[in-house]
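Hello again, I could really use a second opinion on something today. Take your time with it, there's no hurry, and the full record follows here:

___
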Amino acid sequence: MVRGTLEVLLVSAKGLEDVDFFGKMDPYAVLTYRSQEQKSSTASGAGSNPEWNETFVFNVSDNVSELIVKIMDSDTFSKDDFVGEAKIPLEAVFAEGSLTPTIYSVVKDQRYCGEIKVGLTFTPVETRGFDEEAFGGWKHSAH
């Protein structure tokens, strides 16, 4: 069982498919881990190459090993458009503790439509009820 906090650094996106017919896209990201959802700021007028450099923190309390980042285009007068999404595997960060910003493909309808750069840090939380000796803990010594 994996427990702790997952810190996600949303750096930028590149080469996103522009879904805006008029002007440049105003992209933002929706990050989802299990039922936890967080939204980035909108990169107004950034078009296909937005930069966010924003950090998000999620509580990890089970073995869900995927973070989904959806890229949306903010529209003033109509429903926001879905640009694409990246599914980021988390097994490596759970094992390593941190991953420097890495590029992941953004996909829509199984088609590549840009890339996103994301850094990950996982901080495990000590779980109660384990055998301290087996984990290199200390035992009370008799006086």
Observations:
- The CA atoms of residues 29 and 38 lie 8 Å apart.
- The beta strands are 4-14, 27-33, 36-39, 51-60, 66-73, 81-89, 98-108, 111-124.
- DSSP finds one helix and eight strands in the chain.
- Residues 91-96 form the longest helix (6 residues).
